[in-house]
Design a protein that fits this description.
about 425 residues, alpha/beta, Aspartate Aminotransferase, domain 1, Aspartate Aminotransferase, domain 2, 3 domains, seven-stranded mixed beta sheet, globular, binds pyridoxal-5'-phosphate, protein biosynthesis, selenium, PyrdxlP-dep_Trfase
Amino acid sequence: MDRRRLVPRTDAVLADPRLVEAGGRLGRPVVKAAVAAAQDRARQGEIDPADVADAAVAALPAHAASLRPVVNATGVLIHTNLGRAPLSAAAVAAMTAVAGPADVEFDLATGARARRGRGAVEALAGAVPAAADVHVVNNNAAALVLVATALAAGREILISRGELVEIGDGFRIPDLLASTGARLREVGTTNRTSARDYADAVGPRTGFVLKVHPSNFRIEGFTGAAEVPELTGLGVPVVVDIGSGLLVREPLLPAEPDATTMIESGADLVTASGDKLLGGPQAGLLLGRGDLVERCRRHPLARALRVDKLTLAALEATLRGPVPPVREALHAGPAVLARRAAVLAGRLAGAGVDALNVPSTAAVGGGGAPGVRLPSAAVSLPERLAVPLRTGEPPVVGRIEHARLLLDLRTVPPERDDDVERAVLAAAEVRG
Ligand SMILES: *Cc1c(COP(=O)(O)O)cnc(C)c1O
């Protein structure tokens, strides 16, 4: 008999109460697609026609969006492919709270219009008292575009040849700056640039001097760069792109520049990312001299680069709230990590998994501090578990080293250890 005739009709399957409920939560198209896929599987003989509704229910996504939360066990603190900084619980709560109507540009006391995002701006200004004014845009690239457009369109930006940086995925800061109509005037050489090089190049067409922190590489050997204090007497603004978003000095990362130190040493403007070492949402921060920040804020382009209420809420909660996960991960003690790895590996080994606890080395990642090695601890597993762990629920992403899969615990919040254990047991197909 033709089994295709036994496949239940779409409307009959859709009447299943579980799928009706899912339609309200996920939207009808998502549910219909799951039903169609299950009917197909029944026609192919992969599943029994009687199981079509069950198969559709099992295949439903958890959310209406296809992006999935994952466990970052790579040991890379700021992993761009995994969404950079994970938000703190306080930031998540703040975002959720304002998902509906919120007073983002409204004064509840007077009923009048209010300054957009004032809470986040005040929190940022409060965190960097050295900055006379601050502004927030969509990301650091947007901050650079805004500064270049507002201060140097049709003019020149002086930049060292050693700081013509590609940030990642083909994104080059010089191309970004040139796209604004500003002309880049390169000074010095790849390995050495002096204050004299800038002084010789500065002129009536100079919009500003730009210093870019080489946040993802280091050059060693016969090198030299002019530091901010040597550039403040040139008669043009000094703008520093610090990249990582440290607002004050971080003792664990002594080579990583921070906004406060840069402004105190004479930078007129600092630009930074919100979702690197600051540990917040994707955002671009502009901090520094009042007149320059104001010129950026008043420029028509600023409207195209502004952030939404979710970003403003998350940024303010990151700045005012508890230590965000990136900082927790950075400061986690190696002994604590080693103990967690031993407990986890012990439990897995007890369940029959080939699991060992091993020392590991974590890194800050594309977000900054190249070359910094953070002592860590990992659970070492057979390499063949990498795919089932990535495709399991929740997906767990580790890294391969010497033909073993390492789950580095520095980037795993301690409260997720049990989830990781269950995921490994499921991937290894042993009973937990
Ligand atoms: C990461 C980085 C950028 C780009 O920042 P986004 O927030 O990703 O736009 C620019 N400059 C430096 C030095 C960086 O490290």
